[in-house]
Design goal:
Layout lengths: L1 H18 L8 H22 L3
Helix pairs in contact: 1-2
Length: 52
């Protein structure tokens, strides 16, 4: 679930950069949120395997 959300946010961030809609640099929050989603995905994998 977190992987999918991270990928979608990353794609939206790239699309925002390509279209030039970086007014106020708010589009970079999508990058931050996608990185958080990837960290949560890795943490959930570790928790499932009993590593964390």
């Amino acid at each position: 679930m977190y992987w999918t959300m991270g990928i979608i946010l990353m794609v939206l961030w790239v699309m925002g950069l390509i279209t030039g809609s970086t007014e106020g640099h708010w589009v970079h929050l999508l990058l931050v949120f996608s990185l958080i989603a990837f960290v949560l995905a890795v943490a959930s994998i570790g928790r499932r395997r009993g590593l964390a």
